[in-house]
């Protein structure tokens, strides 16, 4: 069982431990911050992938044009 397959019982255990450590008032703030961080990370990853794809396309176009000369 890898780290990506925690399962429902493991998730409940993690949530209970977080509730004990941070308390019920602080937990929504932490969840919101974690969600925002994950959203920014995904956006950055998509932007980087898009930039690399654009560069690869431009390079292919340049090579193709040079071969046709």
TrEMBL record:
Quaternary structure and interacting proteins, as annotated: Forms a complex with TatC.
Subcellular location: Cell membrane
UniProt organism field: Lentibacillus persicus
Coiled-coil zones: none
GO MF terms held by the record: protein transmembrane transporter activity
Entry annotated with the keyword Cell membrane: yes
Functional summary from the UniProt entry: Part of the twin-arginine translocation (Tat) system that transports large folded proteins containing a characteristic twin-arginine motif in their signal peptide across membranes. TatA could form the protein-conducting channel of the Tat system.
Family to which this protein belongs: Belongs to the TatA/E family.
Transmembrane parts of this sequence: 6-23
UniProt GO BP: protein transport by the Tat complex
Protein name: Sec-independent protein translocase protein TatA
Main location: membrane
Any Pfam family: TatA_B_E
Membrane topology classification: Single-pass membrane protein
Presence of keyword Transmembrane helix: yes
Keyword annotations: Cell membrane, Membrane, Protein transport, Translocation, Transmembrane, Transmembrane helix, Transport
Highest taxon in the source lineage: Bacteria
InterPro entries in the cross-refs: TatA/B/E (IPR003369), TatA/E (IPR006312)
Entry GO CC: TAT protein transport complex
């Amino acid at each position: 069982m890898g780290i990506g397959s925690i399962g429902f019982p493991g998730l409940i255990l993690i949530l209970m431990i977080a509730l004990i450590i941070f308390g019920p008032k602080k937990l929504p703030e932490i969840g919101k911050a974690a969600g925002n961080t994950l959203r920014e990370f995904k956006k950055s990853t998509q932007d980087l992938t898009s930039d690399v794809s654009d560069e690869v396309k431009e390079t292919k176009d340049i090579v193709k044009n040079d071969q046709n000369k």
